[in-house]
């Protein structure tokens, strides 16, 4: 189980409170699909992802961004139990969706960059370190059901 | 040889014209030392790195940040020949400094976060993708002389 200090808990919550899921959600997926284009393979049913403009306008991409951030909210509220919180989602991504678990890290990095764009210098080095520890714990939990 | 689109060339030059090397270089290095503390092992001669405050106020860290930015500027000016531009630096990091090449991308990631924080919404997904590609080429060139 990951150990969290009081400072880490409060920092993660403080960062999360500043994130508007409706605003940030769409951006993170657009970033993943544009910066790491091979991830488009998982979104065959999302329609037009052929150009950057199409990705930025795609409603399904935007909607999926919010789905992911809502799931991240569960992690913020269950920091001591992430593996169990994400067991079903991990299973889904492994068996049904067949997502390469390296992709989770790419998404985590894009979430951090999107937050950096929004919070700017408020994302201090110490906050970044704590936020990345949190995200990598999420990535770990999402990879936990992969055999 | 890496193929750069006009957009990528213009974007990289634009980013480097907008960022203040004296601010971004030191910020990226200190972030790296704080977020990935094992990297401090390479800077034993830099004095006090015991906590985040010491790192961010350490003049040797700041000076080294500027050195790194000046190195990157060479790559910006020689985008069609980054490999050759960094041959000596690669040999230096491999043979003399004995830096684990996995660390290059850690610094790259911290640089991306600092640039994202500075540019805010101007660090769009397309700009982010171009910058990530540039960083990947730089890292690859720095790894080239290992073995």
Short description:
Chain A has about 150 residues and is mainly α.
Ordered list of secondary-structure elements with their pairings:
The complex is a heterodimer of chains A (147) and B (147).
Chain A: H1 6-17, H2 21-35, H3 52-57, H4 59-76, H5 82-85, H6 87-96, H7 102-119, H8 125-143
Helix pairs in contact in A: 1-8, 2-4, 2-7, 7-8
Chain B: H1 6-18, H2 21-35, H3 52-57, H4 59-77, H5 82-85, H6 87-96, H7 102-119, H8 125-143
Helix pairs in contact in B: 1-8, 2-4, 2-7, 7-8
Explain how this protein is built.
The complex is a heterodimer of chains A (147) and B (147). Chain A is mainly alpha-helical and 147 residues long. Chain A has helices at 6-17, 21-35, 52-57, 59-76, 82-85, 87-96, 102-119, 125-143. Chain A is globular, with a radius of gyration of 15 Å. In chain A, 35% of the residues are buried. The model of chain A has no long low-confidence stretch (mean pLDDT 92). Chain B has 147 residues and is an all-alpha fold. Chain B starts with 5 loop residues before the first helix and ends with a helix. Chain B contains eight helices and no strands.
Query: What is the straight-line distance between the termini of chain A?
Result: 19 Å
Shape of chain A: globular
Biggest pleated-sheet summary of chain B:
none
* Terminal residue distance of chain B: 20 Å
Topology, number of strands of chain A: 0
Write the H/E string of chain B, N to C.
Answer: HHHHHHHH
What fraction of residues of chain B sit in β-strands? under 5%
Cα shape of chain B = globular
**SSE topology string of chain A:** HHHHHHHH
Indicate the percent of residues in helices of chain A: 55-70%
Helicity level of chain B: over 70%
The tally of helices of chain A reads: 8
Task: Please give the radius of gyration of chain A in angstroms.
Answer: 15 Å
Q: If interface size is counted as residues with C-beta under 8 Å from the partner's C-beta, which chains form the largest one?
A: A-B, 24 and 23 residues
Strand percentage of chain A: under 5%
* Derived structural class of chain B: mainly alpha
Assembly of the depicted chains: heterodimer
The counted number of beta strands of chain B is: 0
Low-confidence stretches of chain B: none
Low-confidence spans of chain A: none
Secondary-structure class of chain A: mainly alpha
């Amino acid at each position: 189980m990951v150990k969290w200090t009081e400072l880490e808990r409060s920092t993660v919550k403080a960062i999360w409170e500043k994130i508007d899921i409706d605003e940030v959600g769409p951006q993170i997926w657009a970033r993943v699909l544009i910066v790491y284009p091979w991830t488009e393979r998982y979104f065959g049913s999302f329609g037009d992802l052929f150009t950057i403009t199409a990705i930025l306008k795609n409603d399904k991409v935007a909607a999926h961004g919010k789905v992911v951030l809502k799931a991240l909210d569960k992690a913020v509220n269950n920091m001591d139990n992430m593996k169990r919180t994400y067991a079903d989602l991990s299973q889904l991504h492994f068996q049904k969706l067949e997502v390469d678990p390296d992709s989770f890290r790419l998404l985590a990095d894009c979430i951090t960059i999107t937050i950096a764009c929004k919070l700017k210098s408020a994302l201090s080095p110490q906050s970044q370190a704590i936020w990345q520890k949190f995200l990598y714990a999420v990535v770990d939990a999402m990879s936990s059901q992969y055999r | 040889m890496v193929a750069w689109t006009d957009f990528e060339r213009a974007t990289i030059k634009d980013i480097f014209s907008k960022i203040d090397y004296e601010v971004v270089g030191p910020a990226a290095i200190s972030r790296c030392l704080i977020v990935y503390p094992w990297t401090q092992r390479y800077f034993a001669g830099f004095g006090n790195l015991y906590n985040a405050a010491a790192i961010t106020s350490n003049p040797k860290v700041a000076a080294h940040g500027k050195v790194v930015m000046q190195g990157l500027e060479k790559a910006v000016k020689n985008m069609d020949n980054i490999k050759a531009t960094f041959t000596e630096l690669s040999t230096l990091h491999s043979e003399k400094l004995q830096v684990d090449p996995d660390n290059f991308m850690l610094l790259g990631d911290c640089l991306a976060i600092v640039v994202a924080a500075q540019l805010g919404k101007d660090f769009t997904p397309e700009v982010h993708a171009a910058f990530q590609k540039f960083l990947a080429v730089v890292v690859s060139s720095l790894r080239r002389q290992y073995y």
